[in-house]
Design brief:
Order of helices and strands: HHHHHH
Helix content: over 70%
Strand content: under 5%
Subcellular location: Membrane
Largest sheet: none
Number of helices: 6
Radius of gyration: 17 Å
Protein name: PQ loop repeat-containing protein
Distance between the termini: 43 Å
InterPro entries: PaxB-like
GO molecular function, one term: lyase activity
Oligomer: single chain
Main location: membrane
Shape: globular
Length: 213
Amino acid sequence: MTIFLTLLSGIGWMIVYEECIRLGIKQKTYAMPFWALALNLTWEAIYSYSDIFLGAHGPLEGITIAQAVVNVFWVCLDCVILYTYFKYGKKEWPQKISGKLFVPWSLLVLVCSAVLQLAFIKEFGFFLAAEYSAFLQNLLMSVLFIHLFISRKSMEGQSLLLAVAKWIGTLAPTILMGVIQFNIVVLTVGLFCSVFDIIYIILLLKERKVCHE
């Protein structure tokens, strides 16, 4: 069950990333809110390195191998999404702010995200830091996807498949770490993620219905 839920989460998030890449390239936009992307990318890069080279979560066997492989795939996909952000994101940069600040601002967000990940590790250790930071930034992503939909006033860079895959990709580790392994923090944040993910799915369903009328 542990390996199944881990792989289900990995597959769900790979679909999310694939959709972000497909929509970003097809529609010439970026599909993942940037703060969420920065936190995800730095999380995956740091924990991929720490698991493979430092053995942060123990010997690479069973579940740790599965998670390490999934993390590496996520890093590669996130790098492509990051490319779409830098290529197409400037058009959504506030007009009152100089466009020259787009790249420095984006790099600052990436640096801040990496430092936050390292701060979590320093405070909680690799095991709890990985869980807590992952679920907290996942909750932020759930809210930011809704904000992205509202601010764009359309389904640009978004799809129902992406929304459902994100929900399932988060629900699987919520069951694993929050219920089976029972961690009240993970369970609480995971449930909130589901609440906002379902709201996001409902918003997209309504928008798609309006567009088809």
